[in-house]
Amino acid sequence: MRLRIGRAWILVGLAAAGAILFDGQEVQAKGGLSAGSGTTQPTGDPMYNYIFDVILLPDSTLDNGGFITIYDIPYLGSNPLTSQPNNKWGESIQDTGITPLGTPPITDNPTIPNITWVWNGSAIVNSSLTQSINLGDFTIGSTIELSSPPTPTLEYVGSLDGVNFSNMGIVTVSVPEPSSLILLVAGTGLLPLLYHCERQRRQRRSELQLQADA
Fold first, then answer.
1. What is the pLDDT of residues 75-101, one digit of tens each?
2. Which residue, 146, 121, 148, 145, is CA-closest to 135?
């Protein structure tokens, strides 16, 4: 069972032919792919997975080879695992790019990895002028604890045809606070166990202190 803690929806419901501001400049976009939200999933202490929802915006067709790149994902371990909604999505991790032709200037730190998800199936057509299609959950991880910044804001860019720029934006990743994790433990009935472990830890520390004072 996976628990989501917090959601941050960015650039959902763009007009089919509209303009967005990115780094202070106007960027024209007709549909495209969007990283609709970013969350994290605890996988251990203090490890987390990133989870992104990828959305096909109104009046858009995702062709074979179309992709979305999320830039500069912090705190990735070596050879991080990824998961996609189905096996028609491929993934690649690289230090720079993959960036479509015609993309306006974008910050891409060559020392922090990017991830690109590529569609390798038949074309997906969104003929609606108002509704987006959620393409599913895309996961990368695990990472060390996200302590700084606590809610990283990441840039992304998409291509519908696998070559040319179609859309760009930002996605803010929600990270659970320690208090949220405590509530999670309480909700699963594990709070007594947490207290028991803490009591044993304190008792052991007291015994060590008595031995040191003897």
1. 887 788 899 999 999 999 999 999 999
2. 121
Does the predicted model carry a pTM greater than 0.90?
Answer: no
Res. 144 pLDDT band, cuts 50 70 90: confident
Q: Which residue has the tokens 């999670």?
A: 184
Which residues, other chains included, contact 54 with Cβ-Cβ below 8 Å and sequence gap of 6+?
33, 34, 35, 36, 68, 117, 134, 135, 136, 138
Token pair 């790149």 in the structure block, residue: 69
For the record, the structure tokens of 143 come out as 């990472």
- For the chain, the structural domain boundaries read 18-176, 180-213
For residue 108, give the nearest of 93, 123, 95 by alpha carbon: 95
Query: Nearest to residue 88, comparing CAs of 69, 57, 59, 62?
Result: 62
Rounded CA gap, 186 and 160, in Å?
A: 44
Residue scoring higher pLDDT (1 or 58): 58
Class of domain 18-176: mainly beta
Q: How far apart are CA 98 and CA 92, in angstroms?
A: 9
